[in-house]
Amino acid sequence: NRDEEAASTLRKIYPPSEAENEIAALQKSVQAEREDEGAVGKISIFKLLKTKIVRRGLTAGIGVQVAQQFVGINSVMYYSPTIVQLAGFASNKTALALSLITSGLNAVGTIISMFFVDRTGRKKLMIISLVGMILTLISLTIIFHESSTHSPAIGVSQTAHFGNFTCPNYKAMPAAKWNCISCLKASADCGFCADSSNK
């Protein structure tokens, strides 16, 4: 029975043109619930899904989750230590420490969102963050594509230019266990290595 307080809150969240319709729809929904059941707690999921407000909230919630999965930030956060290692930081400790920056920025972004969510509105904030996320992921894609297409070839002939400067740790390593990360980890002075099969 705190109708005025509820109406005041809804007017802060919704544009003036939508606020009154939303208040009326909520009042109608509450009244219908009272008439149908007489008490909260006995209402069924099917009756809830018939309510326009519940359906809209459920659709919005599912839509946000789908959008979050499609932009791919979860995979970037999950694989950030690997991404950092592929960028040339061989140490697991360094890779994990640098990946904490991604997690830290995510936490900071969440706190900023909590601060602005009721001031700017959920829809506006979501659209701004979604556009920012898409632009950031496009930038990340372009950077990795460019670095892979423009990086110099590394093979036996390229390594031969350096005489005996190929990592001694690598020379002693069985060819079957060789990969880029093991080469980076072989020595702090290693730039690149190659094996006899021209990997």
From TrEMBL:
Which is an annotated Pfam family here?
A: Sugar_tr
What broad class describes the main subcellular location of this protein? Answer: membrane
Q: Name one GO cellular component term.
A: membrane
As for subcellular location, the record says: Membrane
Please give the PANTHER family that the UniProt record associates with this protein.
INOSITOL TRANSPORTER 4, PROTON MYO-INOSITOL COTRANSPORTER
Record-linked InterPro entries: MFS_sugar_transport-like, MFS_trans_sf, Myo-inositol_Transporter
List the transmembrane segments: 95-117, 124-144
GO terms for molecular function, please? myo-inositol:proton symporter activity
Keyword list (alphabetical) reads: Membrane, Transmembrane, Transmembrane helix, Transport
Q: Give the protein's recorded name.
A: Major facilitator superfamily (MFS) profile domain-containing protein
